[in-house]
Please model this.
Amino acid sequence: MIGVGGWARLSSCDWPGRLVTTVFCQGCPWRCGYCHNPALLDPRAPARIAWATVRGHLARRQGLLDGVVFSGGEPLLQPGLARAMREVRDLGFGVGLHTGGAFPRRFGEILEYGLVDWVGFDVKAAPPAYERVTGTRNSAAPALRSLRLLLDSGVPHQLRTTVAPDLLDGDQVTALRRWLAEQGLRGHVWQRARPPQAESP
Model:
């Protein structure tokens, strides 16, 4: 189904105003210098938790939790993500997603099929600085396509940027503020980079 590298059975901070289970998907195509979950980066690493275990937990929590957030890593890397989201919906839970938008085609399908109720979208930087933050060439183009898909979909969302001073200095933060204003984007959230975890969550 999906590769689960970590799991928070109860979270009140991963989807604003909701009490959720957060599933941390294994694998990410980017190498952001401030990554909080480096153990999740390798897509070839074996899953630590079986999806069936998470699904069983959810079946016992119906009526007690508001939803499930798929986080990462980068959840859109998972070919089985849409199917997992459908299973979550069938159990009566809302579906949240944390993403940087690295896979716009897969993201567009999830939005088109109405599988997600809320998205936390990571805006890494103004477009010219994307590669500096992600450590990956040509990372801005897919992210911007995904952002446009999200905005056009009307799905509730939060745009946020993690600030690590060695990757986004004052001038680059100013450039991102300007770019966000030019795009008419509001409700953006700034967050400080946290030290990386030694193990997956």
Strands lie at 4-11, 20-25, 67-71, 94-99, 118-122, 157-163, 189-192. The chain has one domain: 4-192. The chain has a mean pLDDT of 93. DSSP finds six helices and seven strands in the chain.
